[in-house]
UniProtKB/TrEMBL annotation:
<keyword id="KW-0158">Chromosome</keyword>
<keyword id="KW-0234">DNA repair</keyword>
<dbReference type="GO" id="GO:0043596">
    <property type="term" value="C:nuclear replication fork"/>
</dbReference>
<dbReference type="GO" id="GO:0000724">
    <property type="term" value="P:double-strand break repair via homologous recombination"/>
</dbReference>
<dbReference type="InterPro" id="IPR042320">
    <property type="entry name" value="MMS22-like"/>
</dbReference>
<dbReference type="InterPro" id="IPR016024">
    <property type="entry name" value="ARM-type_fold"/>
</dbReference>
<keyword id="KW-0227">DNA damage</keyword>
<dbReference type="InterPro" id="IPR029425">
    <property type="entry name" value="MMS22L_N"/>
</dbReference>
<keyword id="KW-0539">Nucleus</keyword>
<comment type="similarity">
    <text>Belongs to the MMS22 family. MMS22L subfamily.</text>
</comment>
<feature type="domain" description="Protein MMS22-like N-terminal">
    <location>
        <begin position="239"/>
        <end position="565"/>
    </location>
</feature>
<feature type="domain" description="MMS22-like C-terminal">
    <location>
        <begin position="738"/>
        <end position="1100"/>
    </location>
</feature>
<dbReference type="InterPro" id="IPR029424">
    <property type="entry name" value="MMS22L_C"/>
</dbReference>
<protein>
    <recommendedName>
        <fullName>Protein MMS22-like</fullName>
    </recommendedName>
</protein>
<keyword id="KW-0156">Chromatin regulator</keyword>
<dbReference type="GO" id="GO:0006325">
    <property type="term" value="P:chromatin organization"/>
</dbReference>
<dbReference type="Pfam" id="PF14911">
    <property type="entry name" value="MMS22L_C"/>
</dbReference>
Length: 1103
């Protein structure tokens, strides 16, 4: 239709009418009376201008619509201004019409004809511009597309508020304009327009945008005008036809939008291209007969599309006809998918205030399932179906279709095959499906179609209105299961049955125990011993899920647990099944309040077997569950049920707990052990755990005691101090467990009696502070000393078990601990004739072992440890009566004899001599150091058959270091140490020179030692040292001159060469002793003695 046909030939008449209208009074003009129907009656009421709307509604696009967008349309929208198809919309003021006429002039028929012609021209211009007629576009380039569209829309508003009469020009104008628009908006045009949304709204300059939104406005206003004229003849038919045409066009636009999307995109894509079309759909669905019209429109669309596709194909053979059948089948599935997508979106506009029958869910689902859809198509369709209100018939259809495929994988074709074991335990199964049932939507394509069905079934049963349909659904489901069919299920089938049963139980509104009993017995048909490993584990998870639901509802568990354990025993306590059972213990115990439902049956031999065979990580979960159980048991009121639970714990858990406490490292073991201690009525378990065997976990004892103390139970003070001391030895004082335990220890009366404060423990090593304070207690009274000794031995009881395996740092702390005790508390640590006293145990087990005394070399690191504590040990023994007590004397001798050779682990002579240097310096009296050095010299400087011992070089080097160290000391201290040293070793040194072979290296070493000694300033200035040396030489003369004359004179001659000032005063005494020897021999003058005296005299004269 050419728009030039609508050019007016009556311009002069219009101009004349315009002039006349401006000159005549308004009341004399021919007007169109405006009227408005009330919603409640058919009376026409004159409306005052003041009540008219201030705006003319129109579509102003805000861009593409989304699924999450709300129904908050703009203020100038049709929905916000009362427009609806059920009633006549409110009147708008004619002053808002943007025509080049006054309001009064718009009532003139000629003006109306002119506006009608302009509207037709604008429609054609917009259509031509969209169609791509370049010549027309160039001609109209200066025009505003929005103004053209608005002129047409305003013309419809003018017609909507005019009093129409059949046969009048207005009626003809409406009919002609409608026919023009219908002729322009064919299917090809909609393919160009359906995506013409734009975020700029009406500021957009694209003609397609304005034609698309103008068409929506014109169709809407046209229907409103016809609704106003519904009492006139033939209007109702025209109205129904236009309404169907509008629905067809909207469905076509949605279908074109659907074709641009993939199936997986539908769930997150709005079916409406923009909110303008969404608003029009919302106005349409408010009609009372909307859904029948909606389904009719979809049917017409299906027929139209099939006809179009058939017309585009040329079939020349049966092969092509076969292809056509596949093509039509696929097209039908796509059509049904589009149908479901559009239906869901429109139903969402109505807030799902519809029924399944109105939506024709059942019939359409039947068609969809009959088309053998793929898994992806089925998932998408069910996601589009899930939000809708479903009834029992729909779910029964799905069940009839899916139950035959229980053993199928329900995977998409492009996915790798994998087991649907998405839940690791029974508790995980329950949590997963509880969350899915509670989720707001089910639009998740990761869920397979059977899972979607189970969730839809559960959510339907949760609704109160579907309570009566539950029995029908359950009956249909149960009828498909038998024992044979259950045993024929594979891994996929068992998984699907589990999720189905869980969804039924979690959503059931009736008698839970009845339904749970039926499902339980059905699942028990899957005998574990008759299933392969994978199916057995799946069945076990299903059982645990059902058992958890039983526990949540406080149902009796005796029968169910008994049957489950019987099946587990039939599998010989399969470890994987035991792990599944154990994983649910924690959750079951969480729901146990009084233990009257048979929970104690879960503590059976299978649990002991699992704890013995499982890894530490798996044990952790069991210990945690048992810890919770013990907490609940302590809080529960004493009854026969709680007693039975405690007996089960003692029988099946406590023995394994003892073993694991000693060998394990779980942090839950001390916590659980503390709970057992509190439950133990005999109060013997704590001492047994702490004293029987030392745990491999060094912090276990401290944590156990801390947990007991924090639970307001006070163990014996000796036990607390013992654990604290052991923790100080095995752990650092800064360790968290030690720091937490120390405040509890300081509150004890024993610590207060020792007057120990927290500051004392922080200022120095806590072990030194404690044993120092204990050792300072008065011990002069025998019975007081005995009491303190008993306390000390209680504090360090079984200390020999404290030392762990190969750990150098802990060994060093342990040996330091022994030295600290012996040094500070020697009178308390040593009990004469008591092999179990601390002193004897330390010596025989660690310091003077049988292997060491037998000559077996100690471990490589032990000499260094003993070297460090050696002077401390010697000083501690020095506080005991070591001269009167033969055991102590021998202990000192053995320590010196067996450990000194091993101090040669270092080539540093000064380091080797450090223990003796420290002892020499610390022993102010000098008695102990003299005794020790004397034992050192006697043990290592003795000569056998003129041969020196193997370690004489080490000892001589050690003595030389002691002599050299004197020059670094003050004169008085140096002289004191020199005298002690000479008293201890001088005579053994001289005898070594006398009796050792002349060619032995040690003889030269001793002489070199004497040269170093004589060169010392302290020795040269000390008259006491000189007198001591002279006295020793006199003693040796009286002792050895008669029998070893030659050796004695040889020694004197060598000393005379080194220190003549020392020998010169002794020459007269030696000569006199030599002459006495001659007389005693009675042989007259002895030439040998005379020659020796002569040689000695010559050496003295020469020096």
């Amino acid at each position: 239709m050419d728009y030039d046909l609508f050019q007016s030939d009556e311009d002069e008449e219009i101009l004349t009418a315009y002039i006349e209208a401006s000159q005549k009074p308004q009341q004399t003009a021919t007007v169109l009376h405006l009227s408005l129907e009330h919603d409640n009656n058919d009376d026409e009421v004159e409306i005052d201008v003041e009540t008219a709307l201030d705006v003319l509604p129109e579509f102003n696009c805000a861009g593409r619509d989304t699924v999450k967008s709300q129904l908050d349309f703009p203020s100038n929208s049709f929905a916000r201004n009362g427009y609806t198809f059920n009633t006549i919309p409110p009147r708008s003021s004619l002053d808002n019409l943007r025509f080049d006429f006054e309001s009064s002039q718009l009532q003139i028929c000629l003006v109306l004809r002119y506006l009608h012609g302009e509207a037709c021209k604008n429609v054609q211009k917009l259509c031509a511009a969209v169609a791509g007629q370049q010549q027309l576009q160039m001609k109209s380039s200066s025009h505003s597309w929005y103004a053209m569209r608005q002129q047409v829309t305003h013309f419809y508003h003018l017609l909507l508020h005019a009093d129409q009469v059949e046969g009048t020009p207005a009626m003809c104008s409406l009919l002609q304009l409608r026919e023009l628009i219908n002729s322009c908006l064919d299917a090809a045009t909609w393919r160009t327009l359906y995506f013409a949304e734009h975020s700029k709204g009406n500021d957009c300059t694209t003609p397609a945008y304005h034609l698309y939104h103008g068409a929506l406005e014109w169709r809407l206003l046209d229907l409103c005008v016809q609704r106003k004229l519904q009492e006139q003849a033939d209007v109702e038919c025209t109205y129904q036809a236009q309404l169907s045409r509008l629905l067809d066009d909207l469905v076509l636009c949605s279908q074109l939008h659907y074709r641009s999307k993939q199936s997986v995109q539908l769930l997150h894509t709005s079916v409406f291209m923009c909110r303008c079309s969404k608003e029009l759909w919302m106005l349409l669905q408010q009609q009372t007969d909307f859904w029948p019209r909606f389904h009719q429109a979809l049917q017409r669309h299906k027929i139209t599309q099939l006809q179009r596709r058939l017309n585009s194909k040329q079939f020349v053979s049966e092969t092509l006809l076969l292809k056509l059948s596949f093509f039509l089948e696929d097209a039908n599935l796509s059509y049904l998918e589009f149908y479901a997508w559009l239906r869901l979106s429109v139903a969402r506009l109505a807030a799902f205030d519809v029924t399944a029958d109105q939506l024709q869910i059942g019939s359409l689902l039947q068609q969809f399932l009959a088309g053998s859809p793929s898994e992806l198509q089925r998932r998408v369709y069910l996601c589009l179906l899930a939000p809708l209100p479903l009834d029992a018939a729909v779910l029964c259809q799905l069940w009839e279709s899916l139950h035959r495929s229980l053993n199928c994988q329900f995977n998409q074709a492009d996915q790798l095959e994998q087991l649907p074991l998405t839940s690791a335990s029974g508790a995980a199964y329950v949590q997963r499906y509880r969350q899915l049932l509670a989720s707001a939507t089910l639009e998740d394509l990761q869920l397979n179609s059977f899972t979607m069905f189970a969730l839809m079934l559960g959510r339907t049963l949760q609704l109160p209105r579907n309570k009566n349909q539950a029995q029908k659904l359950l009956g249909r489901i149960f009828s498909k299961f038998s024992a044979a069919k259950l045993l024929a299920l594979n891994e996929y089938g068992i998984h699907h049955v589990i999720e189905l049963f869980l969804c039924l139980l979690l959503s059931h509104q009736g008698d839970f125990s009845e339904l749970a009993g039926k499902l339980r017995e059905m699942l028990l048909c899957l005998a574990l011993d008759k299933l392969p490993a994978a199916r057995r584990q799946l069945a076990a998870k299903g059982h645990m899920a059902l058992l958890l639901l039983h526990a949540e509802r406080r149902l009796p568990l005796h029968d169910y647990i008994g049957k489950l354990l019987a099946q587990l025993a039939a599998t010989r306590n399969d470890l994987d099944v035991c792990a599944i059972y154990a994983s649910c213990l924690h959750t079951i115990f969480e729901h146990s309040a009084d233990f009257t439902h048979g929970e104690q049956l879960l503590l059976a031999p299978w649990l002991t077997h699992y704890l013995e065979q499982s890894a530490q990580a798996a044990q952790e979960r069991v210990w945690q569950a048992l810890h919770l159980l013990c907490q609940r048991l302590r809080q529960a009121v004493a009854s026969a049920a709680t007693l039975a639970m405690w007996q089960a714990l003692q029988q099946h858990v406590l023995p394994q707990l003892r073993l694991q406490y000693v060998s394990g490292f779980s942090s839950w073991l001390p916590k659980l052990a503390a709970q057992f201690v509190l439950l133990d009525k005999e109060k013997k378990l704590l001492q047994s755990l702490l004293l029987d065997a030392e745990p491999a976990n060094l912090t276990a004892s401290a944590h156990l005691l801390l947990n007991v103390l924090e639970l307001d139970q006070q163990p014996p003070a000796e036990l607390v101090i013992q654990v604290w001391l052991k923790s100080l030895v095995l752990l650092q004082p800064q360790h968290a467990a030690v720091r937490q335990l120390t405040p509890h220890v300081l509150q004890l009366a024993e610590l207060r009696a020792l007057q120990l404060q927290a500051s004392d423990l922080e200022a120095r090593e806590p072990l030194c502070a404690f044993f120092g304070a204990l050792g300072r207690q008065p011990t002069s009274v025998a019975h007081v000393r005995m009491q303190l000794s008993h306390k000390l031995h209680a504090y360090v009881a079984h200390f020999e078990r404290w030392l762990p395996g190969d750990n150098p740092e802990l060994m060093a702390r342990f040996y330091n601990f022994m030295a600290i005790v012996i040094y500070n508390c020697a009178p308390l640590a040593y009990v004469r004739s008591k092999p179990s006293c601390f002193f004897h145990m330390a010596m025989t087990r660690f310091l003077l072992t049988t292997q060491l005394q037998a000559g077996v070399a100690p471990e490589a690191r032990l000499p260094q440890l003993v070297h460090k504590i050696f002077p401390v040990l010697l000083q501690g023994i020095g506080r005991l009566p070591y001269r009167q007590d033969a055991y102590l004397t021998r202990t000192l001798e053995q320590l010196v004899l067996h450990w000194t050779p091993h101090f040669a682990y270092s080539s540093n002579a000064k380091l080797v001599a450090r223990p003796y240097a420290t002892l020499l310096q610390a022993d102010v009296v000098g008695e102990l150091s003299q005794f020790v050095l004397q034992q050192l010299a006697l043990q290592f400087l003795s000569v056998q058959r003129s041969q020196a011992g193997p370690h004489v070089g080490l000892v001589l080097g050690l003595l030389q270091q002691l002599i050299l160290a004197l020059q670094e000391l003050p004169a008085s201290e140096a002289e004191r140490q020199l005298l002690v040293l000479l008293k201890a070793v001088h005579i053994p040194l001289l005898e070594h020179v006398m009796f050792v072979g002349e060619l032995e290296a040690s003889r030269l070493q001793v002489l070199q030692l004497y040269r170093v000694l004589s060169g010392q300033t302290t020795f040269q200035r000390s008259t006491a040292a000189a007198a001591l040396c002279c006295g020793d030489l006199r003693s040796l003369a009286e002792k050895h001159l008669a029998h070893c004359t030659y050796f004695y004179f040889q020694m004197l001659i060598k000393l005379a060469e080194l220190a003549p000032q020392l020998i010169t005063p002794l020459f007269g005494f030696v000569r006199e002793q030599a002459l006495n020897v001659e007389l005693k021999r009675g042989a007259g003058e002895d030439c040998g003695i005379r020659k020796c005296l002569q040689r000695l005299q010559q050496v003295l004269q020469a020096n």
